[in-house]
Structure formats: C-alpha cells, structure tokens
Design brief:
The protein is an alpha+beta fold. It is built from 8 helices and 8 strands, in the order αββββββαββαααααα. It has a domain of about 110 residues: Jelly Rolls. The strands form 2 sheets. It has a 4-stranded antiparallel sheet. Strands 2-7-4-5 form a 4-stranded antiparallel sheet. The longest helix has 27 residues.
C-alpha cells in the first residue's frame, strides 16, 4: 500500500526486487500464518508479491501491539534481528493469503556486496529506514492522536478498508474508542 512504509517511496528497489525473484524461494502463506514468530531465529527476508502482513509485538504485560504492516511490492523481515542473526522481537503474520519470495541472510549480503550500485543502495536504504522510523517517533511524541490519525489517512487513504479499526488504534497507540471519536469528529466537524 503506497504511503505506509515511506522508505519504499524514497528508493529504487528494482534491482533488489529482481534479486528476490531470481534467487528467492516462492512461498505461499495462508491468512493468519506466521512468516516469523517473536523469539524465533530471524533467518529470512521476503518480498511480498501478493498479500499483506502485520507486524506485532507481545509486551511483558502480555498485550499485543501492532507495530507495522507490509503490503504488496514491499519487503518483510525483522531487519535488525535478521542482520544480527538474533531472535526476532516481532511477529510477522499474513493478514490475507500471501505470496512471498524469501532469501537467506547470506544471499542477501552477497547481493549487497555485488558492486558499487548495490553498496549505494544499502546506504540509501538505511537512511530511508532511519528517516521513516524517526518521523514515526516524532509523531508519537509530538502529535495528538487526531494529528497522527489524519497523517496516517493522508499517507494511506485506503488503509481503513484493509485494516480493522482495532489494529489502526493499536498502531497509533490509542484505544479503538479514541479512533471512533476522531473519525466521528472529522466526519461531523463542530460548527462555530
């Protein structure tokens, strides 16, 4: 979904996408099937040809929080744990039947070290991911829930058709009731 993972909009991913198609193993995941579970070894990265995934984390309090999504023509993995070869800190679960091309870390690193263009891509990708995460952090600390909701809907106007209200609320760090109130307020603005 265009606009959700903004790093994609900042990069030319055609070379990496071609690599996933050429070197990757095609996997079909059913709805609710896990690509990766929290605390499991993060062995693969994937390119989503079809479908969608949600990224969640179970906190120490036992509550699940939605921390992200990956949609068609995007990549999925717990990037930090994938690169460090550590256990995952998130769950990655298909929200619809999905087709993913997966590659191992060794294949991925081999691709990134192929030549200068791939090296530049690696640096640009790191910068784009940092920018996306930094903007989300600023929004979380500095914007009101309504501002965060409006920005999310401006970036991804079709998100509410693909993701339940409860999950949008979790992603924004608010209750479903808060999102309902925001939607109602935006639909029927107060008259002055």
């Amino acid at each position: 979904m265009e606009g959700f993972n903004t790093y994609i909009d900042l990069l030319d991913c055609s070379g990496l996408t071609g690599f996933f198609y050429k070197k990757g193993e095609k996997r079909i995941l059913k709805r609710k099937e896990f690509f990766l579970r929290q605390n499991d070894s993060s062995l693969y990265a994937g390119y989503v040809e079809k479908g969608a995934f949600r990224l969640t984390r179970i906190g120490d309090n036992g509550k699940e929080a939605v921390v992200g999504y990956s949609f068609e023509k995007e990549f999925i993995c717990d990037y930090s744990s994938f690169l460090k070869r550590t256990t995952s800190i998130v769950n990655i679960q298909a929200t619809t039947e999905s087709v993913v091309y997966v590659v191992s870390l060794s294949d991925y690193l081999e691709y990134l070290n192929t030549g200068p263009e791939e090296q530049r891509f690696r640096h640009k990708a790191a910068e784009a991911l940092f920018e996306m995460v930094y903007m989300r952090l600023l929004e979380t600390y500095c914007d009101t829930p309504e501002q965060r909701y409006v920005k999310l809907m401006q970036r991804c106007p079709n998100l509410k058709e693909k993701v339940p209200l409860k999950e949008i609320a979790s992603f924004l760090g608010v209750t479903p009731e808060t999102v309902s109130h925001i939607r109602k307020k935006l639909s029927y603005p107060e008259k002055s």
